[in-house]
Write a structure and sequence with these properties.
- The protein contains 17 helices and eleven strands.
- By secondary structure, the chain is an alpha/beta fold.
- It has three domains: about 110 residues, no CATH class; about 55 residues, Sun protein, domain 3 (Alpha-Beta Plaits); about 170 residues, 3-Layer(aba) Sandwich (Rossmann fold), CATH 3.40.50.150.
- Strands 7-6-5-8-9-11-10 form a seven-stranded mixed beta sheet, with helices on both faces. A four-stranded antiparallel beta sheet has the order 2-3-1-4.
- A hairpin with a 6-residue loop joins strand 2 and strand 3.
- The longest helix is centred in the last third of the chain and has 20 residues.
- The radius of gyration is 23 Å and the shape is globular.
- It binds S-adenosylmethionine.
- InterPro entries: MeTrfase_RsmB-F_NOP2_cat (IPR049560), MeTrfase_RsmB-F_NOP2_dom (IPR001678), RCMT (IPR023267), RsmB-like_ferredoxin (IPR054728), SAM-dependent_MTases_sf (IPR029063).
- Belongs to the class I-like SAM-binding methyltransferase superfamily. RsmB/NOP family.
């Protein structure tokens, strides 16, 4: 496909997303209908689409309309490229610009220029203080692909060399000891034997840093109470000889965890409600809570625009519920760890303060925050001792 045909395809996909389709579904649907497209085309179209969703507000202003076409015109203007170069109408290119496209103008106001929803801007700014603008700018850019080397099976240097032999550039990431950030060739990682044999997992560097900060020791009985796909479960398993248990309120989210654990050569006991109730208390309980995901908006940019004040209220209520469940499952003398990939104080330290006000006997050992400026997703971690 020509560069212009890729832009035309991105416009088609973006229109579906703006009409309410989830981004992944719209991209997969387009790929199924377009067998002529190669993997390079699909990757380029995906990049156009995700870049445009991340910068939806500013690109729509620059492009003169919040449509697929307007966003792609805006994207080109944001990159100081004349859209007329690709909007030619020739072959499969988008139609030439006309009066109907409007003029476009720079986004009005600070929050619009930062691609931040107006209603959330003040709260994000209060939470991030002087980091607000640089963090919002960072959220407008693509996130790197980062691997976690499975310490049970390999070391970082050995994996880096093997990746180089496969033509995939990789370099250590400063946030976590087992993290490798991929450069050229990153898209090939899904086909790499290193991945299929469980030597590496794809995991954000700050997500790895959260697990590295946990006070894990051999022999502990540990519960990952919000296990989801098990990213942090497996990272914990690689750190120490644990008696490791996993639960998620939506059990289907854990469906790949047994196969992933096998591949990584670790053991995890999966629970349903009944077995968890019979399992007693744990030396360490990790709550990787459902949240706004504001720290990972680079990867899931649609979530930035879909979040509403009502949904944020629901999420904080869920965080309080899961934290009080987790406290009850933490042994006396044990550790309760609370993590989110949110940048909002309301979902982070404010939830910990509310919990400690209602549950006496929880001492705060430490809190840490990461933002995309550190090179990974935004994360928050609080580690508490239960006395
Ligand atoms: C941020 S995700 C977890 C991601 C996962 N830990 C990882 O590293 O891949 C939050 C998870 O919490 C689950 N969840 C929400 N409320 C819960 C509850 N009350 N108890 C247990 N899990 C819950 C959701 O289904 C979701 O899978």
């Amino acid at each position: 496909m020509t560069p212009a045909a890729r832009v035309a395809a991105a416009i088609e996909v973006l229109d579906e997303i703006l009409a309410g389709a989830p981004a992944e579904k719209a991209l997969t649907g387009w790929a199924r209908r377009s067998r002529f497209a190669g993997s390079g085309d699909r990757a380029a179209i995906r990049d156009h689409v995700f870049d445009a969703i991340r910068c939806r507000r500013s690109f729509a202003a620059l492009g003169g309309a919040e449509t697929g076409r307007g966003l792609m015109i805006g994207a080109m203007r944001a990159a100081d490229t004349d859209p007329a170069a690709l909007f030619t109408g020739e072959g499969h290119a988008p139609a030439p610009l006309s009066a109907a496209d409007g003029q476009g103008a720079p986004p009005e106001g600070r929050f619009a220029a930062l691609d931040c929803p107006d209603w959330l801007g003040p709260e994000l700014e209060a939470s991030l203080a002087p980091d607000f603008e640089p963090v919002m700018q960072a959220l407008r850019l693509r996130a790197p692909v980062t691997l976690r080397v499975n310490a049970r099976k390999a070391d970082v240097e050995e994996v880096r060399r093997a990746l180089t032999d496969e033509g995939i550039e990789a370099k250590p990431h400063p946030l976590a000891s087992m993290a490798l950030t991929l450069g050229a060739g990153a898209r090939r990682i899904g086909n790499s034997p290193l991945y299929h044999e469980g030597l590496v997992e794809i995991q954000d560097a700050a997500s790895q840093a959260v697990v590295e900060a946990l006070p894990l020791r051999d022999g502990q009985r540990v519960l990952d109470l919000c296990a989801g796909g098990g990213g942090k479960t497996l990272a914990m398993a690689a750190r120490a000889e644990l008696d490791l248990h996993a639960f998620d309120i939506a059990p289907r989210r854990m469906k790949d965890l047994p196969a992933r654990a096998d591949r990584a050569s670790v053991r995890v006991t999966l629970h349903d409600h009944d077995s968890l109730d019979r399992a007693g208390t744990f030396d360490l309980v990790l709550v990787d809570a459902p949240c706004s995901g504001s720290g990972s908006w680079r990867r899931t940019p649609q979530a930035k625009w879909d979040l509403t004040p009502e949904r944020l209220d629901e999420l904080t209520a869920m965080q309080d519920t899961v934290l009080s469940e987790a406290t009850a499952r933490t042994a006396q003398g044990g550790v309760l760890a609370y993590a989110t990939c949110s940048l909002l104080s309301r979902e982070n330290d404010a939830r910990v303060a509310a919990l400690r006000a209602s549950e006496p006997g929880l001492d705060l050992q430490f809190e840490r925050r990461w933002t995309p400026r550190d090179g990974g997703d935004g994360f928050y971690l609080a580690v508490m001792d239960r006395n």
